Amino acid sequence: MPFATAEDGTQIFYKDWGSGQPVLFSHGWPLTADAWDPQMKLMVDNGFRAIAHDRRGGGRSGQPWDGNNLDTYADDLAAVIETEDLHDVILVGHSTGGGEVTRYIGRHGTARVAKLVLLGAIPPLMLKTEANPEGLPIEVFDEIRQGVLTDRSQYYKDLSAPFYGANREGSTVSQGTRDEFWLWSMTVGIKGAYDCIKAFSETDTTEDLKKVDVPTLIVHGDDDQIVPIVSAGAKSSKIVKGAQYKVYEGAPHGLAMVPKYAEIFNKDLLEFARS
């Protein structure tokens, strides 16, 4: 299995499929690269090279005590890109992964980047502040921390409902998909999972978004119960110059794995990559 070595020596696992222009996928919390398998296969079947890594702290990557923050996540991503010497890469980030790829651009620039896709992504800031009144109060994230610390197995099973919109009438997400969510989440060490909550909720990526100078597609579901659209996609689309902004009516946070919405996203992703 391929690994990239981070600056602190942590081993970052990644899967590398196919050949052609590289598309690098970054997953959300608290999942792994496997969450992107359907989109990776789609891209390879259509002549692209697909790469996805397990964020430090979970999956097949190392579980260091330190470094569970957006700066280090971005540098880990850079390690993968540099290990494979990727150029003209299309970065695709979901949720926390959207913050990761955005911070990568903020710290490493776009010399190796061709395009950017943000899906249900956390930028610019999830936390409610005086300057960001649309955000979520700190108590929401404290509850997530408590859930991870006390009974993370049950917490992840419960979280899969709002994540995929299973708590909405007419939901088409399967129990199998919810079980996958639990399985992937349980591979994440409790320290990495806990620290990442602060990383995805309190990190302001506004200045990183301002540095984006490549074609960008921003996709967000208007029924996202995890990363509310008003504090995320709606704001990011106004910061990134020339960004394409698509709102999926009724779509949940994990829309890329929910029938109907996944089909729309896959079509939009492929069209954007080819454009």
From TrEMBL:
It comes from the Bacteria. One of its GO terms (molecular function) is peroxidase activity. InterPro entries: AB_hydrolase, AB_hydrolase_1, AB_hydrolase_fold. Keywords: Hydrolase, Oxidoreductase, Peroxidase. Residues 22-255 form the AB hydrolase-1 domain. Belongs to the AB hydrolase superfamily. Bacterial non-heme haloperoxidase / perhydrolase family. This is Alpha/beta hydrolase. It comes from Streptomyces sp. R41.
